[in-house]
Amino acid sequence: MKKSISQRFIIWMAVVITSIFVLFFVTFIRYDTFLNEKELKNKADHILSFSKQNLASAMWQYNNKYIIDYIDSLLLYKDVIFAQGIIESKVINTKIRGGYEHIDFSGITDSKEFIIRTCEITYEKNLVGKIIFAMSKKQIQKNSYKNSLAVVLLFAFISTITSIAIIILFRKNILKPVLDLNDSANKIADGDLNVTIDTSSDDEIGQLAKSFSDMMNSIRMITASRDELNNEIVERKKVEGTLRKSERRLREAQRVAKIGHWELDTPSGTPIWSEEIFHIFGLDPTISEPSFAAHKKIIHEDDWRVLENAINELSTVGKSFDLEFRIKKANNDIGWMHAIGSAKRDENGHIVRMFGTAQDISTQKHVEEALRKRESDLALAQSLAHLGNWSWDATVNKVEWSNEMYHIYGVDRNTFSHTIEGVAELIHPDDLKKQEYAVAEFLAGRSVESYEYRTIRPDGNERIIEVAGMRSEEDENGQKIKLFGVVQDITERKMLESKLQQAQKMESIGQLAGGIAHDFNNILYPVIGFAQLSQTELPKDHPVQENLQDILDGAIRAKDLVKRILHFSRQKEPELKPTILKPVIKETQKLLRSTIPSNVNLQLNLYDGQDAVLCDDSEIHEIILNLCTNAYHAIAGDKGQIKINLEKQNPPDDLNLSPGEYLCLSVKDDGVGIPEKIKDKIFEPYVTTKEIGQGSGLGLSVVYGIVQNYNGGINVNSDPKTGTVFEIFLPITDQEVYLEKDNIIKNIEQSGNKHVLFVDDENSIVKLGVRALKSSGYRVSGFNDSAEALKAFETNPDDFDLVITDMAMPNIVGSELTKRILEIRPDIPIIICSGYSEKLDRMKVKELKVSAFLDKPLTIESLLNTTKDVLNNQLE
């Protein structure tokens, strides 16, 4: 902050007086100290002189008592702090004033604190001793400070009074007139030219005031003229400022909105572009010509003709235009511009001016494109997931759907009512209450996570819908006025769940059938074997031979039945291999015969050729069973007929199958036919005409999936009068069909003295195997305990020529027994027998490195012939 003259004067006075005060104080202290030290030194010299006169005799006479008293008396002087008497180098007495005991006075000389004196005492010119004393300057320093302080206080008082008097005179005679002039100058600076200045004084300041007053009169005259001119300038600047502000705001608005204006004066042909149009085109306004035609190369070639025609029509007939066109930006990106043009006519109707705007809408176009892309991606994702979103405005009863919602419900966007009642019409009548209850619960504020209902499309197709993720929008009173949610068509998922349940059920059936088959085969094996042994042991014309043959025939039929049940019930991944269909169809016929009533005639007409298709025979079973079951359910009345036909036939062109040869498997019935309204949807999941409990609607969809997997096709013809025929076309493969060798040898020869290890957990089977093998000349060791059999082999492995073992046994299973035997002796041949095994079939025999695999129940012929072939290394 700037200091005033009075402040600076007071500070100057204070500095001067303080400096004088300090100088005087220091000088006075030094002078007073000097006088006091001089007085103290005189006193020391006096003591020194007095001591020489009074101690000489005493020291000569060794009057120690006197010397001690004298030393003590020296400390009666308040300035003496140390005294010591010495006779012939012997210290007689030493006296030190309290507070100075810590100081060693030996060897000390005069300093700022002490005066030291040593007095040598002579008697008749003989040195008899000396005294040493020290005097402190501390007291004289204190006295000096006291004297100085008194003088300083007096000087300060006088100086203060003098300074105050000087300041008062200064302020009255010098400072106040100057301040008055300064105040007048400030008022003039603030614009007050009517200030009155005191000019009564005749001194220098008065003269200055008169000159200042004369100057003010001149300024008043000049200012009056200037104010008139300034008023005019101010008004003009206001107008210019308003215009510049408007122009600046216009430029800023155009820059922010990326919009510019243009105009063309028709008579002069002079075009004008705003700065922003140049920026939109990426041009320098200082060097570029403002003309659309001149910058034709910047405008996209496909859009230039449209813009050119619009400008021509504007200039000739005054037709306004509003259009969008593409431009090429400096970085080769494509931008978009929105241009508007209009024309102004004179009183004669002639066009005198064209004008308009041009706006860069590239960002909007990119946003629109991104939005369209996002909407397209969302629609695609919803289509793939069969997922749709919906909203319902309860205040106006308006329903809004995404595109996929119309596909899910199979309705047309233009005909749908978009009301809650219209939605209710699409819901299955039996499920409508579930939908109404869920909405009511949600409106009541209770949580509704998800629920399912069925919908019936206008074409009659039934789908399963899941509603999930219901949310709401509330008004200011907390009432739900708008609902949102998503729905998903879960028909396919339900079908997969049903197929999974069916697969699990079939897996359980297969496991149960496998266990039963194993036990049943163990029962059949001794029946068949002992019957055969009895036949060989009795004469051929014995009456019992016929009974034994009947037993064998029944046991063989039981064996085939178990095999078919196992084959059908075993669920596994499809194993596609070249298959001749005729035996598969015949085998399926045997199962069908036991399930279809006898009043339905089942006829077969099968192709005898050796052409094969690449398929899984269990899936062919499933196709035939599904089609025949549907055919049986379609037959009305007490009698009917189902025909299964297999022939070599080319498929119709409308199936669009790959070129090549095909086998046609057809199933025809004389039932009621397929209703026309569902004829085109029979292969969709859950489409059925059967009553509840007769079918799930999945059979034909499963058949369709299997056939599609085989690269085949299905043709359907149906008539209510003649019935329905399904034709399945499967491509013929050129891969070689695997044919099992017939191991049955009618004439069994004696095979020598080979030793066979026979293992099975059933005693009857061990007994039968031992008898049969011994009857053919083999040495046989039979065991019903696999652990004991392994122990016997480990004891003498080279004694055995062949091992025959069951697969499913307690303790050690057949596969484990095989591995452990081969570890002991890798070259020994092994035959595995099994009635049922998920983990073992003929294709996996080589993995166990066994020589042969036999299905239970065995016949004596197959056991003996396989044993002979293995031992003779004849079975491949």
Quick gist of this model?
By secondary structure, this protein is α+β, with helices and mostly antiparallel strands.
Give an account of the 3D structure.
The protein is 47% helix and 22% strand. With 876 residues, the protein is of the alpha+beta class. It folds into five domains: 5-146, Beta-Lactamase (2-Layer Sandwich), CATH 3.30.450; 258-360, 2-Layer Sandwich (Beta-Lactamase), CATH 3.30.450.20; 368-489, PAS domain (Beta-Lactamase, 2-Layer Sandwich); 581-733, 2-Layer Sandwich (Heat Shock Protein 90), CATH 3.30.565; 755-871, Rossmann fold. The strands form five sheets. Strands 15, 16, 17, 18, 19, 20 and 21 form a seven-stranded mixed sheet that branches. Helix 11 runs antiparallel to helix 12.
Notable traits:
Beta-Lactamase; seven-stranded mixed β-sheet; five-stranded antiparallel β-sheet; 876 residues; alpha+beta; 5 domains
**CATH topology of the largest domain, anyone?**
Heat Shock Protein 90
Mean pLDDT: 79
Looking at the overall shape, the CATH architecture of the largest domain is: 2-Layer Sandwich
Computed structural class: alpha+beta
Portion in beta strands: 15-25%
Which radius of gyration do the C-alpha atoms yield? Answer: 65 Å
Question: Which ranges are low-confidence, i.e. pLDDT below 50, for 5 or more consecutive residues?
Answer: 691-697, 741-748
**C-alpha geometry:** flat
Largest sheet: 7 strands, mixed
The CATH homologous superfamily of the largest domain is termed: Histidine kinase-like ATPase, C-terminal domain
Q: Would you report the number of β strands? A: 26
Question: What is the helix tally?
Answer: 19
Compute the number of structural domains. Answer: 5
Task: Give the CA-CA distance, first to last residue.
Answer: 120 Å
Q: Helix amount, in percent? A: 40-55%
Reading off the top of the CATH hierarchy, the class of the largest domain is best stated as: Alpha Beta
